[in-house]
């Protein structure tokens, strides 16, 4: 039989165990959807974010990652995050219902990794614009997972690509609705044609178009390696997926935990900015090894191309972004 002297200690232990159990039982679970495939660098980034949050909240919050669009197509998930059916996502922004979000691919909003990182971090111009646009839809941005700097791939040689005033007898595919890059390419001396993604490979193979723009070197290697003869690293835009969270869900968390989520997303984002620079460089080396003529530009040339785009192209595509948003972007660049 238990002695009376031992009973208080047992009661204390039982109470402690009950409190621990209750704490675990009431841990917050946040569901995070991503397009990234299992085993990919993108999934690893999402899992690291989850690990950081769980560790720093001491188990108060568990982030469960759903890769490979397990919770639905990314456009559907975007709506679900707005509605609160899904808590978070790491994916592209759906731009159809707010033209301000065209800022995410607007040509020459930045020209290198350093300016992209500054503009895509809290306090940066593009981050502010995105925050204003999506906050009205019940979304809060936390960070950006970078995919890389954009460029253009061609099935032929390209003469004088560094000269924005050169004339090229080449037709480049732009995506349906890709007015921003249609105007940009035409200013740089190319002809353009609209072609669905599903028809692009065959179009380049058969000469319907001579090239394509709108992706990174890694994307070109994945889809067009065998038909790409020239790659021009224009640095015309930066590809990235956004960490977004339902605003009500986020606001319901204690302020300290909100800060932990934001800091974890920013830590993963900052780490990726360093990785993506190396990843882009590696992709360009892979292209060279495959016999692709890779054209890169020094900072002075990139700034020259950007200056031409900002002076001659931006006024023609201002409606794609909205004049007010364009003025915000220009102000951030000292224009």
Automatic annotation (TrEMBL):
The record's listing under Pfam families reads:
DctP
- Which GO BP terms apply? transmembrane transport
Q: Where does the signal peptide begin and end?
A: 1-27
InterPro entries to which the protein is assigned, alphabetical: DctP_fam (IPR018389), TRAP_DctP_sf (IPR038404)
Key words, A-Z = Signal, Transport
Note whether GTP-binding occurs among the keywords: no
Q: Which PANTHER family match?
A: C4-DICARBOXYLATE-BINDING PROTEIN DCTB, PTHR33376
**Family, similarity comment:** Belongs to the bacterial solute-binding protein 7 family.
**Protein name (Swiss-Prot/TrEMBL):** TRAP-type C4-dicarboxylate transport system, periplasmic component
